[in-house]
Design a protein that fits this description.
single chain; about 800 residues; alpha/beta; Immunoglobulin-like; eight-stranded parallel β-barrel; seven-stranded antiparallel beta sheet; 28 helices; about 20% strand; globular; hydrolase activity
Length: about 800
């Protein structure tokens, strides 16, 4: 049946939505409260046989567009659409339906529109308007729930109700049902995962299969291997952002129309294939899933992953989603109307949080995303949520908005709940002295919920635990962690710290005791047994580990969409070659295939080019023509193209990003995992789970310090006592020369006196024969003793 035959406009329903909008704006106590209600009816939604579509369209008022020039555009493929194909030419039927408007809102409704489901494709839609020159313009749906071709293409109408009805973890949520919304408490610890580099498949579906495989192995009581161990022992999994990101700046687009008329349109479709670390978002489409992460093209994959965690044997795992609402990339200007934005910033664009419609729509996007089944939310860059106070003539933090984020009540499987919340907030960043002046407690102290968390000071980006002097230089922050850190995320290895570590000048005072090569040093610094022991057996808070760190995989700033600044970004990342790629790794045939094809056959070839590029970017103030000219004059000539040009430089930059994305995949490092290290890290996580009281701040009987005199080494000692009387004593060698022989239990530490201490944990670099008594500790060694009253 053709689209025109199948679909009929429902003018009464559309007019009813417009009238509802009028009533809310007229009768609500405030404009924001009105827009909160209106936001619930925006986007494409399915209600039985009726499909409704709502848009916030202030641009139509800006351009004074009359009702007769505004339509809902529906597009239906003439043949079934295969979302798993990389490239296809498709012809779509097209119909235009009338709309109903009230001020800055536009609505449409229709019968017979096909909604997408897991097993069937749906019709696509946009709002369109015609100008005085008979030229057509599109308004995309920022609240779309399925974007198979990204945030800059028409949306697919999706049956969210059917997706929710089919979820396999309904029992998990129904058990949480209370008279009041259930409030999720903090987990014991977190595993942070970047979906595209977590598995060879790089999708949510492949990650789901990884957890389902692990669950099956546990049910069958099979012994864990190192690959199992890096996933086990966690109460929560936090995904780096899964929202749609930027697209290729100069195209081609994933949806390219090649011709058409009022009845049909021909489209060249490309399966989205950008690589991104997750934080380059355009705000539009935040309520759904980045199609790059979807093996099937169906957003159900995120529900499936939530179910795999919630149904995990032994105990459910929480799903924590990382949301980015503190900025938009400049590409967002092409996806949203100008009223969403409040001006440029270092990331792209500020959002206009004081606009009641924008504020309501952003919160609605968050509500829809978390309803996929998340138990927790991590808010990226909370210090960037600001508004301009014209009276004071200064930017102020929008803490009320942050509170609104925490206050949202979610609903899954008939259960209302409020997620656990974590905020990354380093205010007064980017003030120059932020590392000194930030308390990392602004949100904790400002919110009502006692379980609100923030990233702690050792979790923030500028932490380099492989530079000599790091641990004593940070001791004042460690003291803060011990005293007020129970609502902090702890640990030194995450997507930000590992990335910053790869950008450190290797000529600094590097702790060479960590390894024989720069790669070994970096890997051990961020997967360090003594640091982990400190984090899990001594520090309060909720520990978090990054999968790429614990798997000893690589990591960096991965984004292949840039055209204008792509060469500059790669120049800034070039130093990571020194930290993460040795001659052997580069020589592996499957590594760096694109760069090798461009003439960089060896690591030495690429390293020499990278020695010149950052310097030339700086001295020419990023003048690409001048950079290419100077590179051509280098003697002896550089490897690479016969002659450097601006297009060639951009090709090299793109090749670096694509090659590094593949190089960073965890599947590449699995075969080299050390079972002693993975087993020890798992035992640490299990120890923390068994001693959950360690999450709280140090009590009056607890003790933490470093041994004095320092004598060229840093030894941390920790004594902690639970309310029930259990005592945990930890000693770790953080850096420097060896300790000399001593008995850890004979030190003059308050609480340590007496007998009955038992060795509970020792780092894998301590021999199996050690069970207590005198020992010589060296860099990255540590011991945990326990005693029960």
């Amino acid at each position: 049946m053709s689209l025109k035959t199948r679909v009929t406009a429902d003018r009464d329903t559309a007019e009813g939505l417009a009238d509802r909008c009028r009533q809310l704006l007229t009768e609500s106590p405030s404009a924001f409260e009105a827009h909160q209600q209106i936001a619930r009816i925006l986007g494409g939604q399915v209600d039985g046989e009726t499909a409704t579509f709502g848009f916030w369209t202030p641009e139509l008022l800006d351009h004074r567009i009359p009702d007769g020039d505004v339509f809902l555009e529906l597009l239906s493929p003439l043949d079934p659409l295969d979302l798993t194909r990389a490239h296809q030419e498709v012809r779509f039927e097209r119909v235009y339906l009338p709309v109903a408007r009230y001020e800055s809102h536009t609505f449409a409704a229709a019968h017979g529109v096909r909604a997408g489901r897991r097993d069937q494709g749906g019709d696509f839609y946009t709002l369109v308007w015609r100008d005085a020159n008979d030229e057509w313009h599109r308004i995309l749906d920022p609240l779309a729930m399925s974007l198979p071709f990204g945030a800059f293409a028409p949306a697919e109408l999706y049956d969210v109700g059917a997706m929710q009805a089919a979820r396999r973890d309904k029992a998990y949520f129904q058990e949480l049902k209370r008279d009041e919304p259930y409030k999720f408490a903090p987990p014991t610890n977190i595993l942070q995962i970047h979906v595209p580099t977590a598995t060879a498949g790089g999708t949510l579906a492949s990650l789901t299969r990884q957890f389902e495989r692990l669950a099956e192995r546990l049910r069958n009581d099979l012994p864990p291997d190192p690959l199992d161990e890096i996933y086990l022992g966690y109460d929560a999994v936090q995904l780096l952002p899964v929202e749609p990101t930027t697209v290729y700046e100069t195209g081609p687009g994933f949806w390219e129309e090649t011709g058409g008329d009022a009845d049909a349109v021909s489209v060249t479709l490309t399966r989205p294939d950008t690589t991104n670390w997750g934080y380059d978002i355009v705000i539009s489409g935040m309520g759904t899933v980045n199609p790059v992460l979807l093996e099937s093209g169906r957003p159900d994959e995120l529900v499936d992953f939530a179910a795999a965690l919630h149904n995990f044997p032994t105990r459910p795992k929480m799903l924590v989603l990382d949301v980015v609402f503190g900025h938009s990339d400049n590409q967002g200007l092409n996806a949203l109307n100008s009223h969403f934005f409040a001006g440029p910033n270092m990331y792209g664009q500020n959002l206009d949080y004081k606009n009641p419609a924008v504020r309501a729509i952003l919160l609605e996007m968050q509500r829809r995303k978390v309803d996929f089944g998340a138990d927790g939310v991590r808010v990226d860059g909370a210090q960037d949520f600001k508004w301009w106070d014209y009276t004071a003539q200064e930017l102020k933090h929008d803490d009320d908005y942050l509170q609104s984020m925490s206050d949202i009540v979610q609903e899954v499987a008939g259960t209302e709940f409020r997620p656990w919340f974590v905020f990354e907030d380093g205010r007064p960043w980017p003030q120059e002295d932020w590392e000194l002046s930030s308390t990392y407690r602004a949100v904790i102290e400002g919110q009502i919920d006692p379980d609100v968390f923030q990233w702690g000071p050792l979790t923030f980006a500028h932490n380099t635990p492989f530079i000599y002097g790091f641990w004593l230089s940070k001791f004042w922050r460690i003291r803060e962690m011990l005293e007020v850190g129970e609502n902090w995320i702890s640990g030194t290895a995450n997507h930000d710290t590992l990335r910053r570590g790869t950008q450190v000048n290797p000529k600094l005072n590097i702790n060479t005791r960590l390894g024989d090569t720069k790669m070994e040093i970096l890997e051990k610094a961020y997967d360090n047994p003594a640091v982990a022991m400190l984090t899990y057996a001594a520090f309060p808070g909720v520990p978090m580990d990054f999968l790429n760190a614990t798997a000893r995989a690589n990591w960096g700033f991965i984004r292949n969409q840039d055209d204008k600044y792509g060469v500059k970004v790669v120049a800034e990342e070039a130093i990571s070659l020194k930290w993460q790629v040795d001659e052997y790794s580069y020589s592996i045939p499957n590594n760096f295939k694109r760069l090798k094809a461009l003439g960089y056959e060896t690591r030495e070839d690429l390293a020499r080019f990278f020695d010149f590029l950052p310097a030339l970017v700086e001295v020419t103030d990023y003048d690409l023509d001048h950079i290419a000219k100077l590179l051509n004059e280098v003697e002896p000539p550089l490897a690479g193209p016969d002659r450097f040009t601006v297009p060639e430089l951009k090709t090299i930059a793109r090749a670096w990003m694509d090659d590094m994305h593949e190089y960073c995949n965890v599947s590449n490092s699995v075969s080299q995992l050390d079972s002693r290290q993975t087993g020890f890290m798992l035992s640490l996580r299990n120890f923390r789970r068994e001693n959950a009281w360690l999450r709280h701040n140090l009590g009056p009987e607890d003790h933490f310090d470093y041994l004095r005199p320092v004598d060229g080494r840093v030894l941390f000692t920790s004594y902690r006592k639970s309310p029930e009387g259990r005592q945990v004593y930890t000693i770790t060698h953080m850096e420097g020369g060896d300790s000399g022989e001593f008995d850890p239990l004979r030190l003059k530490i308050p609480g340590l006196q007496g007998a009955n201490w038992k060795l509970a944990l020792k780092t894998p670099n301590i021999g199996d024969e050690y069970v207590g008594g005198p020992i010589i500790l060296r860099d990255s060694m540590g011991l945990v003793f326990v005693r029960d009253e």
